[in-house]
Records
---
Amino acid sequence: MPVDTPKVLAAAAFESGYREKSRSMIEPSPKMALPMVLALATALVTACTPTSRGGPWVTTYGRDHELVGTIVDVRRQQAVSEAELAARLAEADVVLLGEKHDNEDHHRLQAHVVDLLAPEVDALVFEMMTLDQQQLIVEYLAAKPGDTEGLGPALRWSESGWPDWRMYKPIADAALAQGAQIVAGNIDRSTGERLMNEGIGSLSESVVQRLGLAQPLPTPYEEELVRELSESHCGYAPRDRLAGMLLVQRSRDAMMADRLAALTGDGTSVLVAGAGHVRNDWGVPLYLHELLPDKRVVSLAFLEVIGKDETLPVDLPYDYVWFTPRVQPVGYDPCAAFRNSLQQMEARAPGDARTSATRSGA
């Protein structure tokens, strides 16, 4: 059978759970550049030691950037100390921690924030765990309380496509040390596949209403999110698949919000997810505010610094951001690596498949 390259790419992207977000979903975009209050950030930087500002760092690129380690209150447009951040997070009922999945410093700082919230955390929700794994999580931790070393293997983490479990283990450790429960937050793969192929009709009407999926996103948000999804797939996603991708993305956000809303404890609930999911405009907060209108929800995104010659936007879609070094150097093009992988895939395909793939626009 001839290989339809765009469909192969779309399927591969779906199977990976959209873990490779576009830069603009996980980093400030230079195209949105406005002056950041660097004077306040610089003042804070000079008053803090590297360790107190989030280090020592594991990632290497951009360590000498003046914003590395800086925490910014986006709404107030001012840098804050770690102690100030901790005090403000302690006032929240739900704390959303956004990450770039492959940045180990983001996971290290997520665990640190969970520690800062002690002893109030009573639930830790993971985007990386799916609903069909919840029973296994409960049974495993009941049999081996506090043993996170084996939790990843029990969930077959190495087959999931997510970064190594060792990056996420410290976050789980920090939560379990407070007696918190571990909660799977994401739709399972089969549900995602049905949404992609059959649309919203694959969900029951009650689920659609409960998740808030009956109403479309506000037009500007929907258009921007579709654009982000297309760019995150380097332009290879077939246009007729973008509607399905949008629905899956919204369903993931809505389900994570639903899982948070279903928690009944009196403490703080924490979500660990990609930074694109904790955006205040179209991410989990959008659905969570409908489900929990009286609860205080705070989003904190860990963001990699950009080039020193680029200015940062003031309208980042989070309550707080914490800047870190980068996994890849400035100028790294993930789409170039993507195209290289595609070429390698085509080279391994039979001759007629390569011809078909070339005709399809690869």
Note: Confidence is low (pLDDT under 50) at residues 1-52, 353-362.
---
Amino acid sequence: MRTILMVLSLIVSTGLIVTMSATVETIRRSNVDLISSTIGRYDIAVGKTDLSPEPFVNLAEVAPRVLAADDNITAVYPRFVTEVELSAQGEQAIGT
């Protein structure tokens, strides 16, 4: 009897873990779709060359040019994207 209960508990717990994983993935996709529908699904990256003394793009100068480039572009929002390196408690990681 104990063996049957153990097998059943393992099957149920495995099923719950799989269900929870699928639910989390569904919620993640739903959030991405919600954000994408609000701010747009496409990004255009505008950056400066590595030789430029000024690291930032002048938004007041660039935004009108980007908006005029195509009628389908409806808004321009600045966003900082850079590579970072993290070193904490003996572990290192690199990301954007």
Note: The first strand starts at residue 84 and ends at 88.
